[in-house]
Amino acid sequence: MEKQITAPLTEEICQNLKAGDMVYITGTIYTARDAAHKRMKEALDKGESLPLSLENNIIYYMGPSPAREGRPIGSAGPTTASRMDKYAPTLLDLGLKGMIGKGKRTKEVKDAIIRNHGVYFAAIGGAGALLSKSIKSSEVIAYEDLGTEAIRKLEVENFPAIVIMDCEGNNLYETAIKEYCIED
Questions:
Q1: Nearest Cα to Cα of residue 88 among 103, 104, 110, 64
Q2: Which among 73, 59, 75 is positioned nearest to 137, based on CA atoms?
Q3: Which of 46, 68, 85, 118 is deepest in the core (most CB within 10 A)?
Q4: What is the mean pLDDT of the chain?
Q5: What does the pLDDT average to over 53-75?
């Protein structure tokens, strides 16, 4: 089913999303990849606050290419989500509601998604130039020294994604295999 949703997410939005839904996200989302996640964990370990509020927000696992003239951002395709799996449960427990990436997640992430009523979305890998057209503004808000891996605040409009794992733990990667498997 296709759905228009607004970010930041609400509990109601998350409850109404089901694995397999095609969504178009409008609103504010943030980017963070490996280096930014590592730095956020180090800050938390030291008892420091994070450079952004996680409450109800979405983190897009993406590091953009340089923007062409007149554009807010360059190619903006997803990176492999499993690289953030050691950090995701903690961030979900701190209020994060959604993550956008590509690929499978661990059982620990699935458990944290269920526990916190979150959602894991996938964006289409290899379509970064197309995805960037949904990004209306991009601003580095933390860890500028990380370059492309800095945390960015994005304003998006009709950003296309697919619900891979819903707040009940239904996983499209698992259900699709069962649905389309050919029996002998």
A1: 110
A2: 73
A3: 118
A4: 94
A5: 93
- How many angstroms separate the CA atoms of 4 and 114, rounded? 22
* Host H or E run for residue 12: helix 11-16
- What tokens does 164 get? 């891979």
CA atoms within 13 A on the CB side of 130: 7
Largest CA distance in the chain: 56
Q: Which amino acid is at 172?
A: L
Return the residue matching tokens 């609103």.
Answer: 27
- With residue 16 as reference, give the H or E element that holds it: helix 11-16
Query: Contact at 8 Å (CB) between 60 and 31?
Result: yes
Tokens 């890998």, located at residue? 125
Structure tokens, 177: 């295999």
Given CA atoms 148, 151, 157, 163 in this order, what sign does their dihedral have? positive
Segment 66-86 mean pLDDT: 93
Q: Give CA–CA dist 119/132, Å, rounded.
A: 22
Cα–Cα dist 168/148, whole Å: 33
